[in-house]
Amino acid sequence: MSIVVGLLSTAEGQAALTQAVTEARERAVPLRIVVTRPDADPAELDAVRARMTDAGVEHHLVPGSGDLADDLVRTAADAGAQLIVVGLRRRSPVGKLILGSGAQRILLEAPCPVLAVKP
Fold it and tell me: Which sequence ranges form a coiled-coil region, renumbered to this chain (predicted)?
């Protein structure tokens, strides 16, 4: 069992990572961090590793294909994950009628519960 989250530098991505760390610590399970950008800055990855080590969270960086929704769903299925954590943007009243296509795909295709957080 594990928790799955994507590595994104946005405020939403950072909120998701923070919550995923909390969930992994509370559940005492590893955190699988999906790196969707193949050109991710090595210094950024080192900083994430250090953050996880400091938090006392067992973690694995998982290379992705560049499609975050597919990568999160696939990683969750492969790992037998108990939770996927995603960050959502705040939306206008009209935008609230339509959930982002990536988030919608994750919710519909996920093999486990999905926790959506806002920054």
Answer: none
